[in-house]
Amino acid sequence: MKNPTCPRPGAALLFVALVALLPRLDAAEGTVLARPGVRPLAADLPVETAVLTEAPHVPPRITRQHAAKVIVNLEVREVVKRLADGVEYTFWTYGGNVPGSFIRVREGDFVEFHLNNHPTSKVPHNIDLHAVTGPGGGAASSFTAPGHSSQFSFTALNPGLYVYHCATAPVPMHIANGMYGLILVDPKDGMPPVDREYYVMQGEIYTAGRHGEGGLQNFDPMKAEDERPPYVVLNGSVGALVGDMALQAKVGETVRLYFGVGGPNLTSSFHVIGEIFDTVYVEGGVLPAQRHVQTTMVPAGGSTVVEFKVEVPGTYILVDHSLSRAFNKGALGMLKVTGAGNALTYSGKEIDEVYIGQASDAGFAASKREAELMAQKEAAIADNPRIAGFTKEIQLERGRKVFLTSCFACHMANGEGLPAVFPPLAGSDFLKADKDRAIKSVIKGLSGPITVNGKPYNNMMPPHDFTDDQVADVLTFAMNSWGNDFGAVSVSDVKRVRAENK
Length: 502
Ligand code: HEC
Ligand SMILES: [Cu+2]
Prior knowledge:
Immunoglobulin-like; binds copper (II) ion; 6-stranded mixed sheet; alpha/beta; 3 domains; binds heme C; 23 strands; globular; 11 helices
């Protein structure tokens, strides 16, 4: 037993001897460990168990000045979890969450890795850690059937921030189901201290249903092959870093983000709206290689470390700057900074930031309200079947979400449009006059000269690839917002108009 915390008699003596040995060991390991075929002196190393954390948390900084034998226990579990409001998915996880548990070791550490596949799992899994030097990054040695446990060991030869992922066939499916995470191999001298460290990962989810389609969704292999994900998310689900779950910091602090892309397919154009990365450790290496960066590219199966000092309070939005992914598919998170303002650094409004922040906040509030109403509805059904009132309110909240992702950019959040360019929906006589025409406009698009409230418009609205529910919800929302009281659109209305316009 070489664990220095071991209380047995003689352990203290052993510990002293060990510590005396350590500087030499440490000095030697750069050459000894890097030479192939030479075993690390694992038997002589103090033993510790790795602290694993769930995103967005990062294990504490490693302060020891010597190598250790680090035991990692990672459990694979297949779990049904929330993907978006009203949408569930069977995630395959390392540790119960997406992304998988964050693992932190130190350069030169000897890592004894245990992969445990929970007995309730349906399929075997393994792990390929990009931090491993060896065939498959550990994949072949860690192939583990449900209810089994595998062990393999490696020395963390190279410092840096590395992705790990499942490499069991079909690999893209295992990754798309959530089997990815990050392992940080701290350089020997450690990463410079900062005030806050967070863990964020991007990945795609290929659901059989379209974005927003409710219920338990299955994986769609064709969409994965075509790289057409209905969801692109940060930390495993839509809204995982939004509202109450936003990252936090205080004015004057330096924030470090360990950001990775599990993929399986898309490269992220990682950007924080309203911030500039003071330092980027490009591609997850250990050199602070670039300064003053707006957007950094992170490949699938790659990572980056970014640091920035927050100077001004407010909400900063983390996005994949391929922005349809952020605003239509879910790749959006928030960092909330509190503290005193600094008018010299920033005063007045920067339109984009406030606009987007409000829309996301409002969307999140709508999701929460919808969930609340759903709960109330369930409760009401339990002792009273009169639910008509709730049904409409729920439809309105759903419609609000669709509006905030797909319509507000042109028709504006207040429904007033833009003079001579985008017609108003608020108080629109055109919308009020003909429900079927409105349905057709959303489905098929609308172009050519029209008159709304006596004013001419001659522009183009693109068609929307929506489900029947989404069309009904968004139009019902528009017909009952901003003072409108134009009735409602039902799913059967939408079906009928679709059939008539085949
Ligand atoms: C890219 C900009 C754009 C987006 C996005 C957009 N629209 Fe439009 N919309 C227009 C334009 C432009 C017109 C007028 C077309 C014309 O001149 O013939 C219009 C017309 C309309 C009309 C009929 C005119 C009126 O004011 O009553 C309705 C209803 C409507 N849109 C609803 C929606 C809904 C609902 C959404 C979201 C699902 C949406 N639009 C998304 C640009 C857009
Ligand atoms: Cu797997």
